[in-house]
Specification:
Blueprint lengths: L1 H10 L4 H11 L5 H10 L5 H7 L19 E2 L2 E2 L10 E4 H8 L5 E2 H14 L4 E6 L12 E2 L2 H8 L3 E4 L1 E4 L2 E4 L2 H12 L2 E3 L5 H6 L1 H10 E2 L2 E2 L4 E2 L12 H4 L41 H24 L2
Parallel strand pairs: 3-5, 3-10, 4-6, 5-7, 10-11
Antiparallel strand pairs: 1-2, 8-9, 12-13
């Protein structure tokens, strides 16, 4: 039991010294939720976060790149998390699997599709949380499809089982949503789920803001994992900026004007007009003023010529 807890929290990135200290204070039979709360209260952070907090030695690299290794590039930068360009991804495994199985079957293939989508995009930190009892043989009231995928993802250190146990024949399951939100909040990442976690939003105001701003919803279309292009609505960031730690704002001068040739802003328009490349981009009002000023100026010059000797 002690070794299983050690392995579980080591997978989350906590140091063995901190875990042993908490287990000595709370006892070996302490629940995983209590151990996690105590680790957070002590100020202990996953080792990956501590290594990021330490100042790194300066390196001379080619301009526009973060590392010597070539990889997929998004938004003009390297796609690896080591360059702090892409956010960590925390996937609600139960939500994704049940969504892919039409809420009838726990489809592990749906989890694999979501992991592959983020992996192909360049994300290196991807964690999937699934209750431990899903590792058991499937029952008639809770069917599971492609269960071997869970074992493969666990070997790749992508899937993490949230603890559960049986007490007097009854299963005691820890709240896996709490693990998902906590890890995503600590890593400053993105939660992939169609759940709104309203109970956790009411529990912590910081979590409420985080869930509202970092929740990525999705759909499955013909076995294709598809998150929305506008995760926070029409006026929010694009999907690329939402998943990036360093969002890149588009240059408005190269965005086509939504009004096209009907635009009346002229040179005051901040958008791009391909039809005005070789024209003076004056507004309609300015053009009218210019046309009326020309005959007035000509008339004054004629009067001056007649009055002069």
């Amino acid at each position: 039991m002690h070794q299983s807890k050690m392995d579980f929290f080591c997978k989350l990135g906590y140091g063995k010294q901190d875990i042993c200290k908490v287990l000595e204070n709370l006892g070996q039979e302490a629940l995983e939720d209590d151990v996690l709360k105590e680790l957070i209260r002590m100020g202990s952070k996953p080792q990956a976060l501590e290594s990021q907090a330490q100042p790194s030695q300066l390196k001379l690299v080619a301009r526009g790149s973060c590392s010597a290794a070539a990889g997929p590039k998004w938004l003009g930068g390297d796609g690896s998390d080591s360059c702090d360009s892409l956010r960590p991804i925390v996937i609600d495994g139960s939500n994704v699997a049940m969504s892919h199985g039409n809420k009838e079957v726990f489809s592990c293939w749906g989890i694999q599709l979501a992991v592959d989508w983020f992996r192909d995009r360049g994300h290196t930190y991807i964690k999937v949380f699934v209750p431990l009892w899903r590792k058991e043989p499937p029952r008639q009231d809770s069917p599971i499809a492609d269960q071997h995928i869970l074992e493969e993802l666990e070997k790749q250190s992508i899937l993490v089982y949230t603890p559960s146990r049986k007490v007097k024949g009854k299963r005691v399951v820890c709240y896996d949503d709490r693990y998902i939100v906590k890890v995503a909040y600590e890593r400053d990442g993105v939660i992939v789920s169609n759940d709104h976690y309203r109970d956790l939003q009411n529990e912590n105001p910081e979590w409420k803001w985080f869930i509202e701003q970092r929740l990525l919803m999705y759909s499955f279309v013909s076995n294709r994992f598809m998150p929305p292009d506008d995760p926070l609505g029409r006026h929010g960031p694009t999907l690329s900026n939402f998943l990036s730690k360093k969002p890149v704002l588009p240059d408005k001068t190269w965005q086509p004007c939504p009004y096209g040739k009907k635009c009346t802003y002229g040179n005051k328009c901040k958008f791009y007009h391909p039809e005005r490349q070789h024209q003076a981009q004056l507004s309609v009002a300015d053009e009218l003023r210019a046309k009326t000023m020309v005959p007035l100026a000509l008339g004054k010059e004629e009067e001056r010529c007649q009055c002069s000797p």
